[in-house]
Design brief:
This protein is α+β, with helices and mostly antiparallel strands. It has six helices and 29 strands. This is Putative pre-rrna-processing protein ipi3.
């Protein structure tokens, strides 16, 4: 039986696999995903159904269904240097050169292109509530963005801009707590910096003795871990901060890697630390004892390594179930669906979870979800329809659309009754 958490890793060669899922306790392989390679900071989970990454040398995203291991490609406007998905899987952001592209997953619409960095984006990270995300770049900037503002209003101004780093920012971490959390960044300038996401205040700085390439923070945010180019992993206490300059110091060191530590991630109980290195190994450490308990061997330098709760698709031996929400190919131009107020239409994943077992039984509900998403994405506003009818133009098209919408509404009503309440027929027909 698999443990509650697993580790996803990838290396630069792709000889054995593109990505691999490992049991974090036993170190055994749970699943392998083949095809090409994944660039640094581009491998991530898309909801609970998919694994997505970017090829390092081509403008292509590759997507695997976790259960069926289907491999799908999406062409992007350029080579992706950083990739992140919101915790609920509803949005995906990618760094392409110095720009940030924001997509809505269910429709594939490109909602925004943000341009505030001056050098290629190196990493992206979402807050735990998915409302905000943070970007970092080789220009030394760390920028905090509001997802709703960026996607709906087309705002290209970040909430906060932190410019304290003097060299490339190599990794980011956002703690727990939504807007009230803290942001952590590391850089080649040998510093780890801590910021308040709500106020934008710089809270603390740790100056270490090597260029830093990775950062992770334990769940209670009592300790930060920084991976260095020397192969060391520094543990920095965030509680023992008594000096007025807010300068933190390393209190412990994990020693074992022979080359740069490029990836760090910590378990949900804070007891296990996963590190990936250019020495072709990923290591699982026991945090209290600082001892390495597993070595995961690869054929090349590690490009990604992170811990997640083990997806149900990796533990269930049942027949492959349909994903909870359709995945549409990402568009390469600005074609976002917007409502009458200029707000991007978002189909929530939660709405499909009312009848998850029914969706797994057949294609009917799955097609219905796709039709609803398309209707919401491409439907005209009420004001536009009324103007066309008043002008005498498009009256036939309007009547056809109304009839089609009534039919979809009737199907949705009947399907809800049959699937949610277990009835064969609804007690009454909906009003037209």
């Amino acid at each position: 039986m698999a443990s509650l958490e697993c580790v996803f890793t990838s290396d630069a060669t792709g000889q054995l696999f593109n990505a691999c899922a490992w049991d974090v306790v036993s170190g055994s392989v749970l699943a392998q995903y083949k095809g090409n390679t994944s660039g640094p900071r581009t491998l991530c989970m898309l909801g609970s159904d998919y694994l997505v990454s970017a090829q390092p040398e081509k403008p292509v995203l590759q997507v695997w269904s976790l259960q069926r291991k289907d491999h799908k490609h999406m062409v992007c406007p350029g080579k992706v240097t950083a990739l992140a998905a919101s915790p609920d899987g509803s949005h995906c952001v990618a760094g392409i050169q110095e720009k940030i592209y924001v997509w809505q997953v269910c429709s594939g619409d490109l909602l925004a292109v943000l341009s505030r960095h001056f050098q290629p984006v190196t990493c992206l990270c979402f807050s735990d509530d998915g409302a905000r995300f943070v970007s970092a770049s080789r220009d030394g900037q760390v920028l905090a963005w509001d997802l709703a503002d960026a996607a709906s209003a087309g705002s290209t101004e970040p909430l906060h801009a932190w410019t304290q780093h003097s060299h490339d920012v190599t990794d980011l971490h956002i703690g727990q707590g939504g807007d009230l959390t803290r942001v952590y960044s590391v850089s080649l300038d040998q510093t780890l910096r801590v910021y308040a996401l709500d106020t934008g205040e710089v809270l603390a700085t740790a100056v270490l003795d090597a260029a830093l390439a990775a950062v992770a923070v334990d769940p209670d945010e009592g300790s930060a871990f920084a991976g260095a180019s020397s192969g060391k992993i520094f543990q920095v206490s965030l509680h023992n901060n008594q000096n007025p300059e807010c300068v933190l110091r390393a209190e412990a060191t994990f020693i074992g890697h022979q080359a740069k530590v490029s990836c760090l991630s910590i378990s949900f109980d804070g007891l296990l630390l996963v590190s990936g290195s250019n020495d072709t190994t990923a290591r699982i450490w026991d945090v209290p004892s600082k001892q390495c308990i597993h070595i995961l061997h690869h054929k090349g330098a590690l490009t990604n390594a992170f811990i997640v709760l083990t997806p149900a698709a990796l533990t269930q031996a049942t027949k492959a179930a349909l994903p909870s929400l359709p995945l549409t190919t990402f568009k390469r131009s600005m074609q976002a669906a917007r409502d009458a107020n200029g707000t991007a239409v978002n189909v929530s994943r939660a709405s499909t979870e009312l009848w998850p077992s029914s969706l797994a039984k057949g294609r009917g509900g799955y097609r219905l979800a796709e039709e609803c998403a398309r209707a919401l994405s491409s439907g005209a506003t009420q004001e536009e329809s009324e103007m066309e009818v008043a002008d005498g133009t498009g009256e036939k098209e309007a009547l056809k659309e109304v009839a089609a919408l009534k039919q979809v509404n009737r199907q949705l009503y009947n399907y809800a009754w049959s699937c949610v309440l277990g009835l064969q027929e609804p007690p009454m027909k909906p009003r037209s």
